[in-house]
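Hi R.,

Here's the chain you asked about this morning:
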Amino acid sequence: ALKIRYDAMRSLGDTAGARQALEALIRADPQWASTDLFNHAVELYNSDQMADAANALEKVVEAQPDDAKALFLLGMARYNLGDSEDAKKHLARFLELAPDDPDAALAKEMLKYAAE
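And here is the predicted structure, written out as C-alpha cells:
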C-alpha cells in the first residue's frame, strides 16, 4: 500500500506527499531501499534527472549506509549537480567499501578531477 501511495504521489507531482510515503516505505521495508528504490534512482540518473536521482540515492544510503553501488552513483550524481565536496565524500566511501569494483577506476579519476 505504501508503494502504491508513493507512486501515486509522484505521478500527481505531490513532492511532499511522495517524500512522506517514501520515508514510511523505507521504515516499513528497509530492504526495499536497496532494491526497488535503487533501481528507480538508476532510471532517474540515466534519464538525466540528477536532483531526483540524488534524493532517491540519499534515501538508499540512509537505509543501507554500506551500499557501495548507491554511494558511487550518489557521488556521480552530486558531481553532476556541481556539489564536488559531497561527491568526493561519497566516492571516497565507495572506494573504501569496494576498492576492486569495476567502477573504482572511474571513482578515482573523479576524485582527482574534483580535487583540481
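One quick note: The mean pLDDT is 90.

Cheers,
M.
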